[in-house]
Design a protein that fits this description.
181 residues, mainly beta, Lipocalin, 2 domains, ten-stranded antiparallel β-sheet, 2 helices, globular
Length: 181
């Protein structure tokens, strides 16, 4: 069996990824600074403040291996008076209030870290929206995992997709939140 990293298909895919990344940098698709790292702007997260977001959390149930949806809400408020920009994310589950949660999320000074997540991509979307991709080493289902979060934000909709990769397994969608206001 031919090693995956040496296969012609792998070389072609790698070349295509490099070309795509290069073309994105030419058209300004990713925000980056002098170091070339993707950066989130405080204004990106300020878009989330205001009116309550409502929608669904769709998650992969490990017992049935099927998607399950529950009603959810999200309120985001900017925390004033801190040295670094912070936002209070309040998640609500109207039919399961015991699962409600708050989380303070800070953006580091250079915009490369969103809480514990490393920013790997930021792209402006048609219509004024933004796509932000972050990564974090963590655990999923009690296994070490690379978590990738894809945030798609515009004036009326918010989508957060959590992708998981454990070991040599292919990446899969663990859950997604789809909200509107």
């Amino acid at each position: 069996m031919q090693h995956l990293f040496c296969s012609p298909d792998r070389v072609l895919v790698s070349l295509l990824l490099v070309l795509a990344a290069f073309s994105m940098s030419l058209v300004g698709g990713c925000a980056s600074g002098a170091s070339g790292a993707a950066r989130v702007e405080a204004a990106d997260l300020d878009r989330l403040t205001g009116t309550t977001w409502k929608g669904s959390l769709i998650y992969r149930d490990y017992q049935t291996n099927k998607p399950t949806a529950i009603e959810t809400t999200l309120d985001v408020a900017r925390v004033e008076g801190s040295e670094t920009p912070r936002w209070d994310f309040r998640r609500g589950y109207p039919k399961e209030p015991h699962a409600n949660a708050n989380e303070l999320i800070a953006l580091n000074a250079d915009g490369t870290m969103l809480g514990e997540e490393r920013v790997v991509e930021r792209a402006a979307l048609p219509g004024g929206g933004v796509k932000i991709v972050t990564e974090q080493e963590s655990k999923d289902n009690n296994k070490p995992a690379l978590l990738r979060f894809v945030y798609t934000i515009d004036e009326r909709s918010l989508r957060i997709v959590k992708l998981v990769r454990t070991g040599d397994e292919p990446e899969f969608e663990r859950n997604r939140v789809e909200l509107t206001r």
